Amino acid sequence: MSHPEPSQPVLLTKASMITQSGGQTEGMIRSNAIVDKCDGICATHMLAKPHTASAIHHHGGQDTVVYAVKGRGTVVSEGGTKRVDLEPGDYALIPAFMEHQEVNDGDEDVVWTIVRSGRIPEVVNLTGWNGEPAKG
């Protein structure tokens, strides 16, 4: 064999097994899909109800890839001055420590699949742009 043996078998998480994760923002439902299963990567699911926005936050040292599954949503960054609109089929890269906010200004749900460069997703909610970590 020309490569090492895999460290574990293929892992499947059925849609029916995806569970809501910890810290939530009203109207934003985050769920763990594949978390704490291997070093260096994790995957989550985000549902944004119409006319909602997440808290301003960053993901520490984790780079984040967003894949837009359904609806039209926006990633706001650069102190609230830059808007990146995503529609189904689009991808976005949110670099580590980039302060941002997910926004659904529309009348339908937004669904994103999110992959991060860490074993467990890190979310640091802030008191505002360039703010301190929020308590609680």
Task: From the structure above, extract its key features.
6-stranded antiparallel beta sheet; mainly beta; 4-stranded antiparallel beta sheet; 136 residues
Topology:
Blueprint: E1 19-20, E2 28-34, E3 42-48, E4 52-53, E5 57-58, E6 64-70, E7 73-77, E8 82-86, E9 91-94, E10 100-104, E11 110-116, E12 124-125
What does this protein structure show overall?
With 136 residues, the protein is an all-beta fold. It has strands spanning 19-20, 28-34, 42-48, 52-53, 57-58, 64-70, 73-77, 82-86, 91-94, 100-104, 110-116, 124-125. The strands form three sheets. It has a six-stranded antiparallel beta sheet with strand order 1-2-3-11-6-9, with no helix packed on it. Strands 4-10-7-8 form a four-stranded antiparallel beta sheet, with no helix packed on it. Strand 2 (28-34) and strand 3 (42-48) form a beta hairpin. It is globular and about 50 Å long. The N and C termini lie far apart (51 Å). The relative contact order is 0.25. The mean pLDDT is 94.
The gyration radius over C-alpha positions equals 16 Å
Tell me the quaternary state.
single chain
Strand percentage: 35-45%
- SS-derived structural category: mainly beta
Major beta-sheet overview? 6 strands, antiparallel
- Helix fraction, binned, reads under 10%
Query: What is the 3D form?
Result: globular
Order of helices and strands: EEEEEEEEEEEE
- The count of helical stretches stands at 0
Mean pLDDT: 94
- Distance between the terminal alpha carbons, to the nearest Å? 51 Å
Walk across the major sheet and give the strand order.
1-2-3-11-6-9
